[in-house]
Design goal:
Blueprint (H helix, E strand, L loop, with lengths): L5 H12 L3 H7 L1 H9 L13 H16 L14 E2 H10 L9 H14 L8 E4 L4 E4 L5 E4 L2 E4 L1 H27 L6 H11 L6 H17 L2 E4 L7 E4 L1 E4 L12 E4 L3 E6 L4 H10 L5 E5 L5 H15 L3 H9 L1 E6 L4 E6 L2 E7 L5 E6 L1
Parallel strand pairs: 10-11, 11-12
Antiparallel strand pairs: 1-3, 2-3, 4-5, 6-7, 8-9, 9-10, 13-14, 14-15
Helix pairs in contact: 1-2, 1-7, 4-5, 4-6, 4-7
Length: 359
């Protein structure tokens, strides 16, 4: 697989190994894994960065180089890197301050195996009792004829180049957001619509959808109280809960005072919807879906899968009744500019046209 960042990877290999760079690129599973993980480098800030697994590699290879095992020494006798040091170092790296331990412990190995099922080497080796970690040196060396070439420094250079590219892209994204009011409305429209597109990063979609829904509900009022002569008026408030796209099993948004739950997703997999419903003991949930398909189409797909999986209609109906509403932003979105604010004219599932302010 080749993409725009592939040429940068090959340039780094060429700078270190000259005419052998193409052979090394073809023979190294680790370099090819980095090639797969860096395909979002030039796709803009709305594409996923994939830093967790890359940084799991980075901190271990960095430790390998710091002990000069890339030059000499017997790495097989090394006592291993201490987990707390590796974890701390991950969080010191750009975009790494919120990373968890999953990549170091299992996810990087699992994903590598998925891409290279025939490779006999597991990238990250760990001792669960001592909490010591190693990177599999077999993946850091490539044999050409009778010579071995160590790729450790190249691996660090490739990841550094990728991070630099993503930082530049992210900085441009921030600058664009800061300067939006000074730009033509057409550019503002295209920018926001792209953030809602099905190919956008799930984290960006979650943030933008929250901003839209927050202001969509903000001007809607509810009258409630415990006594008939003490009814109070409240506007609907949407709260964001937990970290964005954290895969922590939580609910994404909660609304007061209705106690309504919202879950952001980009899948049509009925199992995912029903799992979220089971998490809250079949409490009704509104799903915000990253899709261009209509609400009716999405719901029909979920029902079709449910009917195949469950032969009992009563069970299907129970789960489907827990889907309080489905919101798909990408169905019909128009943007207007009023009074210094950017507004979305949305057609929501109820087919009512509403204005939502995005600041």
């Amino acid at each position: 697989m080749e993409h725009d960042f592939t040429s940068i990877i090959k340039d780094i290999l060429k700078g270190n190994f000259g005419d052998l760079h193409n052979i090394i690129f073809e023979k190294s599973e680790l370099v090819n894994y980095l090639n797969i993980k860096t395909k979002s480098a030039v796709k803009g800030s709305k594409s996923r960065g994939n830093f967790a697994n890359l940084y799991a590699i980075y901190v271990l290879v960095e430790d390998y180089i710091s002990k000069e095992f890339d030059k000499d020494g017997d790495y097989t006798k090394y006592e291993g890197s201490v987990f707390t040091n590796l974890f701390k170092r991950q969080r010191e790296l750009p975009f790494g301050e919120k990373l968890q331990n999953h990549a170091l412990n299992s996810r990087m190995n699992e994903e590598f195996k998925k891409y290279f099922p025939l490779c006999e080497y597991q990238p990250i080796i760990r001792n669960t009792e001592t909490k010591r970690y190693w990177f599999n040196e077999n993946l850091l060396k490539v044999k050409i004829d009778e010579n071995y070439y160590n790729l450790a420094k190249c691996i660090i250079q490739i990841i550094n180049a990728y991070v630099k590219t993503k930082k530049t892209s992210f900085q441009k994204f921030i600058e664009f957001c800061d300067n939006m009011n000074n730009m033509p409305i057409r550019e503002q429209q295209d920018f926001i619509i792209n953030l809602l597109a099905p190919n956008s990063d799930a984290r960006i979609f979650e943030i933008v959808s929250y901003s839209i829904l927050k202001y969509y509900y903000y001007d809607q009022n509810i009258y409630w109280g415990y006594e008939i002569d003490k009814i109070q008026k409240d506007n609907l408030k949407l709260y964001k809960t937990g970290r964005t796209n954290a895969n922590d099993g939580g609910i994404d948004f909660v609304m007061k005072p209705l106690g309504r739950f919202f879950q952001v997703t980009e899948t049509f997999d009925a199992d995912k919807y029903f799992l979220d419903i089971d998490k809250v003991e079949k409490y009704p949930i509104t799903f915000v879906v990253k899709s261009k398909q209509s609400v009716d189409t999405i719901k029909a797909k979920i029902r079709e899968q449910a009917e195949k999986k469950y032969s009992i209609r009563m069970i299907v109906e129970k789960y489907m009744s827990c889907i309080e509403e489905i919101i798909s932003f990408c169905l019909k979105t128009h943007i207007l500019f009023r009074h210094g604010y950017l507004f979305y004219l949305l057609e929501l599932p109820s087919n009512c046209k509403v204005f939502a302010r995005f600041t």
